[in-house]
Amino acid sequence: MKSFACVLGLLFVFAIAGTSFAGSDDAKWVARCIQDNKDAKVSIDVITKYCTCMNNKMDDNETKTITQWEKTHPAEMAACDKEAGWDK
Fold it and tell me: Closest Cα partner for 86 from 28, 42, 30?
């Protein structure tokens, strides 16, 4: 469990770095999405790519979490699944 926490922490840092030019709360939303998907049967790298992709597709004024938003945006979800390699 500590290993997963370390990996999650590192990915959070990368998510912050990757979204440094985006909205100020993007890193928070991506980190929440990563946490929401921690039990998925894909690598943490795939989850991070997926969450970042979904976050980038959302409007900066969106108030829903990525996990909530994806349920009403299947086309964006499918595109991010493909981009992240989730569908392989």
Answer: 42
